[in-house]
């Protein structure tokens, strides 16, 4: 019996012996007088054991069967290992038709020793930045290198964009590393799906932040334009305000997205047996749509802040930009190759030695940009640079050298030498 039940037995015995009244019993035990009489009747009928709870030692009616617990633990070890309790409960309901609460799943895993008991850290006191009121007011863009395919495939980097107002993942794609092409791919996909946002939040990667840095005070006073990267020039053309975060915590919305994806997306890719980057990109839209249905929220203002796309194709805006000089044959060079704009009837020829802007797309397509219009170019011939000769030249055969004038062979014989040679002969 418990300590509380022993106390009840002692009080009821004193009541039976006449040392206490029913009011004293009710006050000491914290119960009503009617409940005190019930306890007294139980004691008189069954003794001290009758005071104990009637369900003690009995299995509750709503308890989970041991076979179900064993099946849940076996499924976790074989298919769903690594998932947290919330995600595991969702996967059981989706794939196994097992509907359990998150607390039940967590308790089963803890009892089986499959999940460590996590110590909850005290949350830090900070004031989070409120969400933007309208969708399209702010996008956050970033990339996360991670073992998304575990040991089944190579290391990949997930590029993604999230809307600050709704938490919706606008676009995402896998690439081997963090590259300009990956950011351009998700940016073009997001622009075509939603429109042009007002601002973009990113880190200070060299893709967004030019190596030369921000202009000095003297350059600003002189009116010199700031140097922009390829991505920054495209944002300026679209009228998107670029904001650079000074710390990862500043763009916490997308940083928390990576934590969620690293916890859930890895399991989803494993269940689909995805082993390559191509397969991962093929199933990624389905997983992103599932994530948005579950975690995206409605904005405060239903009216979106997106602007319409420009008439210029996005491939021409998100392109590398260089300046070249047109030769007399209407050609220019780019990375060791010679290009020529496709001839168009009625279009005058470019002046020789004039400087033109050349734009190169992410797929390698080359355009000549003039007055807001792109002229496609074709490769004419490769400008081959003669390779430096590394082999040593063969040594020329040595020509017979004449003896010097002061050589003993070139001196005339003296009279003594002639007499000596005659005598010896």
UniProtKB/TrEMBL annotation:
GO terms for molecular function: nucleic acid binding. Residues 381-390 have a biased composition (Low complexity). Residues 129-321 form the Integrase catalytic domain. It comes from Thermoclostridium caenicola. Residues 414-425 have a biased composition (Polar residues). InterPro entries: Homeodomain-like_sf, InsJ-like_HTH, Integrase_cat-core, ISNCY_transpos, RNaseH-like_sf, RNaseH_sf. This is Transposase. One of its GO terms (biological process) is DNA integration. Residues 381-425 are annotated as: Disordered. It comes from the Bacteria.
